[in-house]
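User: Sequence recovery, please. Input:
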């Protein structure tokens, strides 16, 4: 009986350690901290991060093309228009105008921008078209069919 109690105690202790180890391993995998900069495994350049660095927003390292605002979604969804790292993801979208401004402020570190206008969307209304001049930084609301501008997509992680 004494051996049975010790054996049972040992088995319970062993199982507890296994569960604790597995939980600790899971926590280590999910707690990766990112910083502003190029992260190939995320598909591009992290330009915005949450407090703690676990979440944020990535901008593609290359333009997806030049098109009207209405056709931008189609251009973004084509993996052939993305970098090797970016083509691994399917959740790319146009940046909001706030995100576009952050990208503009980091354009030298991100690289690859032309002195041109880039499309973005409104903050809460993705049916609002905006453009930003990557030469001057000026942003303005625009009719979606008005012109053909450059597209550089973003994704969240």
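Assistant: Recovered sequence (157 residues):
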């Amino acid at each position: 009986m004494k051996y049975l109690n010790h054996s049972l105690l040992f088995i319970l202790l062993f199982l507890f350690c296994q569960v604790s180890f597995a939980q600790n391993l899971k926590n280590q995998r999910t707690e990766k901290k990112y910083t502003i900069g190029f992260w190939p495994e995320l598909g591009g350049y992290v330009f915005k991060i949450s407090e703690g660095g676990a979440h944020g927003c990535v901008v593609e390292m290359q333009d997806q093309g030049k098109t009207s605002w209405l056709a931008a979604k189609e251009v973004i969804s084509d993996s052939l228009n993305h970098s090797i790292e970016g083509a691994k993801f399917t959740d790319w979208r146009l940046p909001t105008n706030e995100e576009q401004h952050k990208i503009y402020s980091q354009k030298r570190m991100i690289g690859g921008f032309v002195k041109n206008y880039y499309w973005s969307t409104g903050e809460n209304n993705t049916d609002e078209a905006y453009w930003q001049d990557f030469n001057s930084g000026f942003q303005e609301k625009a009719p979606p069919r008005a012109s053909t501008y450059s597209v550089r997509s973003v994704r969240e992680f």
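Residues 80 and 87 are 7 Å apart (CA to CA).
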